[in-house]
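I hope you will forgive my troubling you with a question about protein structure. I set the record out below, with my sincere thanks for your time.
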Amino acid sequence: MNKFLVLLIFISSTVLAQIVPDYAKEQRWASFVEDGLMDGDVVWLKNADREFLTILTESESDSSKVAIIMHGLGVHPDWTGVIQPLRLSLTEQGYHTLSIQLPVLANGVDGDQYDDLNGDSDKRIQAAVDYIKSTGKSADLLVAHSKGTSMATHYLASHLKHPFKKFVAVGMNGGSIPYLSAITIPILDLYGTEDIDPVLTTVKQRKAASSHNIKYSQKQIIGDHFFNDQNELLTQTVGDWLK
């Protein structure tokens, strides 16, 4: 077999092996969100040649600050666990909120494969930042939950000129550890007493990776990974930290 053919097979295999988002699943989520949205307005943003859904919710005050909110594994920007409570409560804390649809994979896919989507999620975050800037406002706060925290820290670590002044990470696991050493903005690392093992077993490692950041803090409050039945405590804790 000649070298050219070997190279061609290698390139073809690499392309085929690349992980790409499940756009059909995204569209199903988008239809679900649009049909059931009670608070906020759907705004479609563009990432390359594809659009993705976001939810814009206006602040109750005259503010120029916007919080971008990132959901967890395989769900959507109005998810009732963590995301919806925060995107609504932050409008009472002086923030507009823009909750964005992150790339998703098919059901049952191992969570580690989502790491291959970090480049795609970076582009979506940047599209959201650019949109906010075009409205005359500023992307001041980044809020993420679960797997969304890995995507958020990847963006913050690789876009050192980002506009964010604070970062709230809810249920952050070990996937963020490689990126924390490059982040210097204030971070609230918030997790529950009954959180999942990947969160609870990496508490010390996350703190160690952020040892350079004097504005990094960890806080544990009552709750599971989705803070079921603890929405008020979750939103109050985040609000108190932002003050």
Observations:
- Confidence is low (pLDDT under 50) at residues 3-17.
- Residues 78 and 84 are 5 Å apart (CA to CA).
- The two ends are 66 Å apart (CA to CA).
- The beta strands are 41-47, 50-57, 65-70, 96-100, 138-145, 166-170, 187-194, 216-224.
